[in-house]
Amino acid sequence: MAEGLALVAQALLAVAQKQVAKATRKCRGHTLRPGPHTPMWNALALAVKPRVKGRYGAQSKLACLLGVPPQRVHDYLIARRAAPDAERTLQLLFWIAQQEAGIDAG
């Protein structure tokens, strides 16, 4: 799975480099927002989206697991207006691994 995410991230990075001529970060340490300049997050969101889209209650269960409201999961994965912090991103990666292994993670 990691190899697949890396390949998708590399492809998205190539597209992002073409679209973004200059850095959009205003200052050092400024929080990145999802977009063409965040290819790793875009690849992760693409991997998670089919697992929660179309399954009744899946987004709410994932939100409960991450400790955020379901609307925030929508912001992360569907609308891509926000990105989770590092801990929740790691929880999301672990959740995907459990889903692929066939383990019900909540």
Description:
The structure is a single chain. The chain has 106 residues and is an all-alpha fold. It has one domain. Helices cover 61% and strands 0% of the residues. The protein has helices spanning 2-19, 39-52, 58-66, 70-77, 86-101. The two termini are 21 Å apart. The mean pLDDT is 83.
Largest sheet: none
Strand content: under 5%
In DSSP terms (H or I, runs of 4 or more residues), the helix count works out at 5
The secondary-structure class comes to: mainly alpha
- Helix and strand run: HHHHH
Query: Can you give the helix content as a percent range?
Result: 55-70%
Shape category: globular
What is the mean predicted local confidence, pLDDT? Answer: 83
> What is the distance, rounded to the nearest whole angstrom, between the alpha carbons of the first and last residues?
21 Å
Number of strands: 0
> What would you report as the Rg, rounded to the nearest angstrom?
14 Å
* Number of separate domains: 1
Instruction: Extract low-pLDDT stretches.
Output: none
